[in-house]
Amino acid sequence: MTAPVRVLVCDDQALIRTGFATIIDAQPDLEVVGECGDGRAAVDLAGRLNPDVVVMDVRMPVLDGIGATRLLAGAGVPDPVKVLVVTTFNLDEYVYEALRAGASGFLLKDAPPAQLLHGIRTVASGAALLAPEVTRQLVGRFAARVRPAGEVAETQLAPRELEVLRLIAEGLSNSEIAAALVISQETVKTYVSRILTKLDLRDRVQAVVYAYRRGLVT
């Protein structure tokens, strides 16, 4: 029997923490191993409890979710923890910064419980998850600030790979990309794998951030 996914819940509002924990613990394949109310406590608890996934709020005292995510999953962390950011702010600059910090997924707090559970399972499996409404507005009003000046030439990607990268950044799933390009989902998976390898990216979330930073989508 497969061990349940170990989840640490971090949110500065006790009512939300309790709600998330209740929803998560009701699932036979998920287990809440700890709760805390600030990012510093999340980093400390993660070091002791070794969770598979941290459900992380953004705006918290002591250390916010972005700083905590960077310490748990950022560049150079030897044993990164998978972080699913859940917040009320879908157009906040923090969305973009949290993903840059190393988050593997991003959901809004008004998402239905089933979407939260799906998000935890998706991130735990090693995949990345972005709520479609977040993906499509990921940079939004910050696009001009993050797009580098000058012409962009992604010479390491083949034309079809570049096309797939743009569709990923627009929030399309593998099945939607397959339908748009009239190819199989297995072929899409192959393209995605090649893109991540060639650009030295960890997952689809990083691919989205990369595409916006390079000005490949607007």
From TrEMBL:
The keyword Transcription regulation applies. Gene3D superfamilies: 3.40.50.2300. Residues 150-215 form the HTH luxR-type domain. Keywords: DNA-binding, Phosphoprotein, Transcription, Transcription regulation. This is DNA-binding response regulator. InterPro entries: CheY-like_superfamily (IPR011006), NreC/VraR/RcsB-like_REC (IPR058245), Sig_transdc_resp-reg_C-effctor (IPR016032), Sig_transdc_resp-reg_receiver (IPR001789), Tscrpt_reg_LuxR_C (IPR000792), WalR-like (IPR039420). Pfam families: GerE, Response_reg.
